[in-house]
Design brief:
Elements: H1 2-34, H2 46-70, H3 86-94, E1 106-109, E2 114-117, E3 121-123, E4 128-130, H4 135-164, H5 171-175, H6 177-186, H7 192-224, H8 228-233, H9 242-250, H10 254-259
Antiparallel strand pairs: 1-2, 3-4
Length: 275
């Protein structure tokens, strides 16, 4: 439990540090290097278009990140006097000790010390549980983080291509970039700033693929009307049309929530305490 609590603090700090480094590289290195191209017009230069796109993706990623934390799942056990038997009552609520006593779709998170409705999982990067209230913001956070990483990856590859006079036309060029760069760095042929950007390229690729995969997995569960906790516990859920499952999470005005980070746009969240 101590390791999990430590991870609950380190993971958000890690994400914020990566976000800060990415922002600094984009604003002070990648975008200024695009202004050096004399063939582009000032109004529709790639630097301005890329800068606007990056700010849009970053604002949505960080905005939904804040909303995931702000809209924490409601604690169903808040009105219970758990006292010294908190773990016993929590096990009763989520059915860990008595399978027949569990409240449907509830789970007690020992890190957050709360009983949540339609619990999906505990996200260490937000330090918060993901449930019915913040599921949409969490999916938008994963989506825009993936897109922001892809945007940074493309901009970083363009910068390295110009700085090292190399081409990424061949897929092997990217796969062999890191080992060649390490050997050149220790031989003194590669600047430390360029080596740092190359390391960030692989970090952006890893984070982007992970967030994209997680987003697709969550969307598949939503279409089925399930949560990760229900799948892990083998719980049977009532079959419903996939449109209803999507509307329950994203609401009727889903397009507004797709463009800007807002809280529970037209969502019909089922917060009743089932008995």
């Amino acid at each position: 439990m101590l390791v999990l609590r430590l991870l609950n603090v380190v993971a958000p700090a890690y994400f914020l540090c990566i976000s800060l480094v990415t922002f600094v590289l984009q604003i002070f290195l990648f975008i200024p290097s695009m202004f050096r191209d004399p063939s582009t017009t000032p109004l529709f230069s790639p630097a301005l278009l890329h800068g606007a796109l990056f700010l849009f993706l970053s604002a949505n990623a960080l905005g939904n990140y804040v909303l995931v934390i702000q809209s924490s799942p409601e604690d169903l056990g808040k009105g219970l006097n758990l006292g010294e038997g908190a773990e016993v009552v929590a096990d009763w609520l989520d059915g860990s000790r008595s399978p027949g006593s569990a409240l449907p779709s509830t789970h007690f998170c020992r890190l957050c010390a709360r009983v949540t409705q339609r619990h999906d999982h505990h996200c260490f990067f937000t330090g918060n549980c993901i449930g019915s209230r913040n599921m949409r913001n969490f999916i938008m956070f994963c989506l825009y983080t993936s897109l922001a990483c892809l945007d940074s990856l493309v901009a970083g590859m363009a910068y390295i291509s110009a700085a090292l006079s190399m081409s990424f036309a061949s897929p092997l060029a990217f796969l062999t970039l890191l080992p060649h760069s390490i050997s050149q760095f220790f031989s003194g042929a590669l600047l430390s700033s360029e080596m740092f950007v190359i390391l960030m390229l692989y970090l952006w690729l890893g984070i982007g693929l992970a967030c994209a995969g997680f987003c697709c997995h969550q969307m598949l569960l939503i279409l089925r009307g399930q949560t990760r906790y229900q799948v892990r516990k083998g719980m049977v859920v009532r079959a419903r049309p996939w449109r209803e499952n999507l509307q329950e999470v994203f609401g009727k005005r889903w397009l507004l929530g797709l463009l800007i980070p807002v809280l529970n746009v037209g969502g019909d969240y089922r917060r009743q305490k089932e008995k």
